[in-house]
């Protein structure tokens, strides 16, 4: 795999480049990225945000400026993107900035620790190689290499070249039909359920939806109140029945935390007593535990799997290895839907 990695670690590049570094964005991700930069002795020069967010704000002691202000202050500079987006208009803005000044989007794990580096790939090269060689088509292999190069370098061109429409996943890979029995783990507000039922013109057999965050769960109930044959659970997916602590911060990225609120979790094998045809997992780093808790279902029903592979550094190999361990007959595809950074990089198994 190392021969396919064409890039240097983003942190090394930023450290050695003499251009000023400006951070684009505010919030938790910006705090984490700036902390890592500081730990590596890399100082930032300024922070900017989209014009609609610049109203005299300051962030970490820096005045938040407009992009035009930054361009007026510096002839050339590197941009460090510090937020996530899938919105077309925002991505177009990022692309325009990238034409004028190099945009780096450093990869930091949503869950777990450590940074994704060339050294990390080297340490796990056999596993990356095995998964790469198991992928079902050339598009999967090309995308897999692009995502690895992005996660090392932070260069957004690797992502822009990899965008794949989710509707094409449903039609060409998962080949969803009218009689699916769907399990949606990490159902959020029902966004994936809406995507799938829009694709199938509202036709399905049954839907199980699990969402651990209470605020998200209320949105899920409201957004699916007119759906028939659906069961929603205010629970998380795990490898057994238990009560765990989830972050108090509501939103798409609610996850296990040292501080927060108690939430019930369950394994699928004890929750569902019928055949299922598809399982989707987008559960903020708990995918491995959920796979373990669905082993009987996966072995007996061989459902189509839609498993997010971007929350933990090891997800890009460990999840695929676990799936093949449970059922070696799966064909595994890898695609990246429209997102910066590498969120929505997923394994699809049929």
Characterize the structure shown.
- There is one protein chain.
- The chain is α/β, with parallel strands linked by helices.
- The chain is built from 15 helices and 16 strands.
- The protein has helices at residues 10-16, 28-39, 67-73, 88-100, 118-123, 125-134, 138-153, 157-160, 166-173, 191-199, 214-223, 268-271, 287-293, 295-301, 315-326, and strands spanning 21-24, 46-48, 58-59, 62-65, 78-81, 103-104, 181-185, 206-210, 230-233, 236-237, 242-246, 261-266, 278-281, 304-308, 332-336, 345-349.
- It has a seven-stranded mixed sheet with strand order 9-8-7-13-14-16-15, sandwiched between helices. It has a six-stranded mixed sheet with strand order 3-4-2-1-5-6.
- Helix 11 links the parallel strand 8 (206-210) and strand 9.
- Helix 6 crosses helix 15.
- The two termini are 25 Å apart.
Question: Outline of this structure?
Answer:
Helices cover 38% and strands 19% of the residues. It has helices at 10-16, 28-39, 67-73, 88-100, 118-123, 125-134, 138-153, 157-160, 166-173, 191-199, 214-223, 268-271, 287-293, 295-301, 315-326; strands spanning 21-24, 46-48, 58-59, 62-65, 78-81, 103-104, 181-185, 206-210, 230-233, 236-237, 242-246, 261-266, 278-281, 304-308, 332-336, 345-349.
- What is the strand arrangement across the widest sheet? 9-8-7-13-14-16-15
Structural class: alpha/beta
What is the 3D shape? Answer: globular
Q: Rounded to an integer, what's the Rg over CA atoms?
A: 21 Å
Determine the mean pLDDT: 95
Query: Unreliable stretches, pLDDT < 50, 5 or more residues?
Result: none
- Report strand %: 15-25%
Number of strands: 16
What is the first-to-last residue Cα distance? 25 Å
Q: Helicity range of the residues?
A: 25-40%
The description of the largest β-sheet is:
7 strands, mixed
